[in-house]
C-alpha cells in the first residue's frame, strides 16, 4: 500500500482520537455548572452536550479554515509532486496531533481544565519549528495569543458585571422561587454552551483533517480548494466524522475536570451558574462568527465562573485552584510544542523524512 495513503489514514485516525479526547476533556465546560446546581443529572447533561456538540459542529467552517491555513504552512508539501515532501507534511501534522493528545491526557489525569485548542496549536507550532516549516507568527499572535489573554479577561469582567446587574434587578425577589427558575433556565444556557463548544472545538479537528488531505495529495480528489477563489472547503464526511468523534468523547464524561470546574473553583448557585454559562456561550459565538478565532472554551467558562463568584465575596473563589488552572493555561502552548517536536523526531527519523 502507498505510504502516503497509510500516513493520511493514520493522521485522520489520530485527529479523530484528538477530537474524542477533546470531548471528554472539555465536556465539563458545558455541563459542570448545571450538574453542580442540579439543573441536570450527570447522564442527562452528557447526552444533551453530546447532541449539541454534533449540531454545533455542523454550523460553519470559519474556525476550521483558520486552523487549516492560519497557523503553519503546508502548501510546499501539498503542491510538491515528490512523495517524500508529502510524507514530511503528513508527519508534521501527525506529530502536532500526538503532542496535543499527550498533553490532553496528562492534564485530564490531574483534573486540570487546560485548553485542547491551545494544545493543538502548540503542537502545530512545535512540529513546524522542528521540521523547518513556515510558521505564521502573526496569525498565531492575532488568532491565538491575543484571544488567549483577552477572552479570559472578558469572561471574568463580563461575568462579574452581568451578575451584579442580576443581583440588583432581583434584590427584592423571593430567593427559593428565583433559584428554581434559574435552575430551569440553566437547561437552556448549558445547551447554548454545549452548542458553542461544538462550533469551536469540532471545527479544529476538521481543519487538521483537511490539512492532511492536502498534504497527502488528496485535496483535488475531495474538492477541498475552490479552483476559482482558492477558498478552503470542508467535505461533509469530514464534518460528520469530527462531530461524531467529539460527541462520543463528550458522552464518555470527563468527571475529573467536571469536579474542578463545578465544585473546586466555587460553590455555584443556579443564578450564578446560569450567568456564567450565558456569558461564556455569548463569547464563544462572537469569536466563532465575527473574529473567526479558535479560542479556548475552558478559559472562557472558568474565568466567567470566577467573575460571578466574586459577586458573592472575593474569598468565595478558591484562588489556589484558580491559580493552578491559570498555570496549566500558560504551560499548554510550550508543553504541547515541546512534545510535538520530540514526536516529530521520533517519527521522522525511521521514515527517512528530514
Automatic annotation (TrEMBL):
Topology term for the membrane: Multi-pass membrane protein
Pfam families according to UniProt: PHO4
Claim: NAD is one of the keywords in the record: no
The keyword Transmembrane appears for this protein: yes
Major localization listed first in the record, in broad terms: membrane
Record's keyword terms, sorted: Membrane, Transmembrane, Transmembrane helix, Transport
Transmembrane segments: 46-68, 89-111, 117-138, 145-170, 321-347
Superkingdom field: Bacteria
Subcellular location: Membrane
Single Gene Ontology MF annotation: phosphate transmembrane transporter activity
GO terms, biological process: phosphate ion transmembrane transport
PANTHER family reported for this sequence: PHOSPHATE TRANSPORTER (PTHR11101)
Protein name: Low-affinity inorganic phosphate transporter 1
Source organism of the structure: Schaalia odontolytica
Record lineage: Bacteria, Bacillati, Actinomycetota, Actinomycetes, Actinomycetales
Protein's gene: pitA
